[in-house]
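Data availability (excerpt). The following record was deposited with the supplementary files.
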Amino acid sequence: MLSLAWHHNRKYLVFSALQIIASSVSPFINLLYMKYLIDGIMYGKGFDYILQATLIMVAFNFIFTNLGTLANNFTKLNAKALMVPMSSMFCKKAVEMDYQFTEDTEVLEEMNRASFVLLNGDNLEVYLGAINGTIIAFIQLVVTIAIVTTMNPLIFVMVLVVSVVNTLISLFLQKKNYKLHRLMMPVERRWRYLIELAVDLQYGKTVRIYDLKDFLLGKSRENRKEYFEKNDEILANNKKGQMVMGFINVAQQLVILMWLIYAVLNRALSIGNFTVLINSAQQFSASFSAISNQLINLYQNNNYINDFFTFLQRESCLRHSALPDRHLKKEEPGIIELRHVSFHYPNSDQMILRDVNLTIAPGEHITIVGENGAGKTTLIKLIMRLYDVTEGEILYDGINIKEYDYDEYMDIFSTVFQDFKIFALSIYENITFEPDSRKRKQEVDAILKDSGLYEKVQSLPLAEETVLSRQFDSEGMELSGGQHQKLVFCRAVYKNGPVVILDEPTANLSPVAEHDIYEQFNRLVHQKTAIYISHRLSSSKISDKICVLKSGSIAEYGTHNELMRLNGLYAEMFRLQSQYYEKEAL
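Predicted structure:
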């Protein structure tokens, strides 16, 4: 964390140093003043001596109190500022981590724990404050030990024993409470999901049509009940611990007070030194308690900070196999070969694909069809290297795709998924993902015209600057489902990757509308390699080849006419859907 502050916000370190100096000195100003004041009165040193000591005390108090307050405020402010680089690091890792981790429950839990520091900003401030507090308490402790041991070693031993016992009790409680808090993390994640269901516009229609208000409220009550049951355990632990430590502290103070009164009456201890010792004992106890509490705070919050850095340090399996001399041709498509590819998902032994052999020639258009669960989308994930194959290999231009730079390999794909997303950005930004899309206005307008969206876009009050959401912009709007699909097709065309993949993005359209979109898109990407995924057959007649998957294996492969003559699975599927494709069937 200090390294992070050094690289991103050195002001924090400067103000921390000032805070440590001021806070370390402050308690001893009054302690020493009281000694000199009482001794001055007892030994008749006169008004001038007392006035001089008082003025010095006031001056030092004014300087160090104000310096400490100023430094403390700026330290807290700059501690919060460190959230910015930490959030950037977290988001960068979340975007760059292997796709397979986004579907791994264990990693999602780790990611959720890592985000706890960012979602609860006070944790970071408390953690960094605990670092400063530990140093301050340590300095105060050293000075106090020097004073107490010089004047009365027995008091030092007594306070030390009690402080160690209290520290051990606190440490035990914090360990116990951290385990409980980790159990609360999944409960909190479900709580945030329930809130998302209630407020996210994409669920709005379903929530209202199915009258899910009472259902969601019931789930929320169950969630909060589970949360507060665990939280009550934490509060009960703290209550018991505080009662025990409070009793021990009162007993310690009473014993020390009796001992010092005895020393004044029977061992000629001066009133000034009595004051110093009683205050030093309290300061010793407070400093030891502070250092133990701050260390416990560090220990407790370090678990969350550690979760954060553990997530950042998670190794990427997909980015470490690249060879430096492997480069892709991005200007034109290459040959894609799957050789004896088999695959099962991590943490599962069930094979999704079995011994798949497939070659897609440069510029070839191929449709992969099959029933739901046949392995179509999984096959695409492997080709795009969102996952690595379990067995076999995939080659691009004769080279194993693992040997290419991962990000460079991803650049060759222009993909539209079934669950495509429209962002709360302007229309042009949704296509280009560039901050100043107007630089490419002619190119984007040409793509919009080819897709049939140009006139619709120009008819809007803000034209291409229209934001596709009302969530952040009152002048924003939502396009229709078909227009959204055309927009993401424009996005794929604009990226201009040599390999285009459509993974059932038109599944929600009618078969006729789907066929028209495929025909239109096929014209836009006619010189590129195109892979169409569908359990319907809208794209089959416009493809060079058709690959039929069944239970993770290639059941049939060939042109539309060849597969119709084969009279197998594809022909059966086509006849079942023929009422939607009367023209093609005839």
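Summary of structural features: The longest strand covers residues 351-360.
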